[in-house]
Amino acid sequence: MEIFQLKQSNFIYPSSIQKYFGRHTPAVITGLGNLDVLNHKKQAFFCSVRCPGHLILKAYDLAQQLKERGVTVVSGFHSPIERECLRILLRGTQPIILCPARSLKGMRLKKEYKKPIEEGRLLLLSPFKESQKRNSAETATERNRFVAALADSIFIAHASGNSKMERFCREILGWGKSLYTFESGANKSIINIGAKVFSINDLHSLK
């Protein structure tokens, strides 16, 4: 399967990207996989690199529930917790959108991605130019904004106070997006600024 391009002028180009990125909307998005996955309601999933143990277990349980309920999940799947949740999701049958923090051109495709791509349930999307062949802190930040703009709802397993993830949460809330997290003292800072405490019932509208 070959990499395809979605130009901003294309009617299939996600309107939510244009809505939240404004004049910074990528002129071209590249993809690999089944474009129809974009038509599903999408749950974004994020977790900080450092995460308390009790929230790690909750995140894994949530990934299992997302898999069982057939919810389409979109993420960069970059942090250790996110990568483990991707491993869980790949065992299911629900759609997944994976957004790397670099161009798709020249990116080595992991063997565990090949079958779900062929099955039409894994879509890789990137807003980066072909010249961006490496991940960086800057591209990771931009990728996270791209994922959040694509999603109908955003879930953050953990964000500590005064962190990049907390600042990211503030931006999402400024967009008027639905933002959820686990109830925990470790997530107090983002709950205080407007993140909603997650309930499994919140998944029902995303099926």
Cα end-to-end separation: 28 Å
Domains (count): 1
Named CATH architecture: 3-Layer(aba) Sandwich
On the 0 to 100 scale, the average pLDDT is 92
Instruction: State the name of the first-level CATH class.
Output: Alpha Beta
Query: How many strand elements?
Result: 9
Could you describe the 3D structure shown?
The chain is built from seven helices and nine strands. With 207 residues, the chain is an alpha/beta fold. It has one domain: Rossmann fold (3-Layer(aba) Sandwich), CATH 3.40.50.450. Helix 2 (53-69) packs parallel to helix 3. The radius of gyration is 16 Å and the shape is globular.
Write the layout of secondary structure elements.
Elements: E1 4-7, H1 15-21, E2 28-33, E3 42-46, H2 53-69, E4 72-75, H3 80-89, E5 96-98, H4 111-118, E6 122-126, H5 137-150, E7 153-156, H6 164-175, E8 178-181, H7 188-192, E9 196-197
Parallel strand pairs: 3-4, 3-7, 4-5, 5-6, 7-8, 8-9
Antiparallel strand pairs: 1-2, 2-6
Helix pairs in contact: 2-3
Short account of what is shown:
With 207 residues, the protein is of the alpha/beta class.
